[in-house]
Amino acid sequence: MLSTRAARVASRFASQMAGARSASTLIVAPHNGGELDSSISSLATAAQTIGGEVHVLVAGTGIDGAAAEAATYPGVTKVLVADNAAFDNGIAENLTKLVVDQQAAGGYSHIITTANNYGKNFLPRVAAKLDVAMLTDVSAILGDNEYERPTYAGNAIATVKSSDSVQLLSIRATSFEKAAPGGDAAAVEAIETGADADLGLTTFESAALSTSDRPELTSAEIVVSGGRGMQNAEGFETLLDPLCVKLNAAMGASRAAVDAGFVPNDLQIGQTGKVVAPELYIAAGISGAIQHLAGMKDSKTIVVINKDADAPFFQVRRKCIRCQVLSSICVSCKCCHVPYADCGLRNCR
Ligand SMILES: Cc1cc2nc3c(=O)[nH]c(=O)nc-3n(C[C@H](O)[C@H](O)[C@H](O)COP(=O)(O)OP(=O)(O)OC[C@H]3O[C@@H](n4cnc5c(N)ncnc54)[C@H](O)[C@@H]3O)c2cc1C
Questions:
Q1: How far, in Å, CA of 328 to CA of 152, rounded?
Q2: Does domain 217-343 bear CATH number 3.30.390.10?
Q3: What separation in angstroms does the CA of 95 have from each of 53, 90, 170, 174, 245?
Q4: Which residue owns the Cα nearest ligand 1 atom 27?
Q5: 168-223 pLDDT, tens per residue?
Q6: Which of 286, 303, 325 to mutate to test the pocket of ligand 1 (most atoms within 8 A of CB)?
């Protein structure tokens, strides 16, 4: 179901689209070794907002499952499968040529992908090849060439218009409602790609990936983040880690905590880190600098644990708890005194 704002945007968009050229969107699907990235559900919503034909491009090897799943998202009318090892590991040059070729064949009005490292890797190249501008971090679609995107570290929302013939967008996944897969499957079509799909400009050597049995940070329902106030790595291990286990939460961190080496930098949330919008965001020992807020202020409920009543976080009008984090972590809801694991503040909005 669309939120009130989404419904307003959709109605404005619908009136703008009346009489406009017919839209068609190519979603370049982010996936990891054949498993679709969770952002696909937001990309499907964004494409549906644009309207018209929606094709999903899935490229790489071992992608049959991903292609079959992509075909069941609402609005998707066709899935294009480029089954070729040249597209494994997101080699930017090879993927760019594939997308440009598909654009030549399909004449799409919009090409969209996720505003994360996957999109950053190839979309600027596609923009250069097509000689069009790339609109990054789109947080709302207002018309077939008009969008909103955050600027000044999320402190202002810019409305931008593009007059390019092809609209090239990276989508801020947390700003769009998640469409659910499982509907009637669209057609899945194989694309002919030969040996020349590999341009030979980049060779994949290896990937050093951190593995975790916790929820993925950018899609977790609950995120527990720590800052410099946790004092050291031990603070994260002994206080935040058990809380994450208890809440089935992903762990995040401020840049100060990451820079101090308390936790790895793939946990950083903010302007220069990851963007999250969970149901519940717990910030322990984080001041709430604007650069941190830029990465989490769309969270539905924010709980701040901080001993300083003047910390910037307290200016964000959410549930804030003023307390110390070092002896014990606050694990019960301030409103109903039920443990967060059971309440998660869902009862207390
Ligand atoms: C270009 C640029 C990009 C940046 N990008 C990011 C980014 O992506 N993400 C990011 O997070 N930052 C980013 N920063 C840094 C940002 O400006 C802040 O410096 C940083 O967020 C501060 O981290 P912090 O809140 O953990 O540390 P601090 O500002 O030092 O705050 C620590 C907080 O912990 C509280 N505290 C201390 N001890 C306790 C205790 N015992 N109990 C309870 N509370 C306690 C203190 O009251 C304080 O509010 C960026 C900065 C720049 C210039």
A1: 36
A2: no
A3: 22, 7, 15, 25, 38
A4: 228
A5: 999 999 899 999 999 899 999 999 998 899 999 999 999 887 777 888 898 899 99
A6: 286
Residue 36 CA to ligand 1 centre (angstroms): 33
**What are the pLDDT digits (tens) for 123-148?**
999 999 999 999 999 999 999 899 99
- Domain span(s) for CATH 3.40.50.620 in the chain: 22-197
Distance 278 CA to ligand 1 centre (A): 20
**∠ CA(338), CA(343), CA(345), 5° rounding?**
105
Mutate to test the pocket of ligand 1, among 267, 306, 316, 327 (most ligand atoms within 8 A of CB): 306
Q: Select from 2, 6, 41 the least CA-distant residue to 218.
A: 41
Q: Which residues belong to CATH 3.40.50.1220 in the chain?
A: 217-343
For residue 128, which of 88, 163, 164, 161 has the smallest C-alpha distance? 164
32-47 tens-digit pLDDT: 878 999 999 999 999 9
User: What does the pLDDT read at residue 8?
Assistant: 52
Query: Ligand 1 pocket by C-beta < 6 Å: which residues?
Result: 227-229, 254-257, 268-273, 285-287, 289, 291-292, 295, 305-308, 311, 324-326
What CATH class has 22-197?
alpha beta
pTM: 0.80
Ligand 1 atom at shortest distance from the alpha carbon of 295: 8
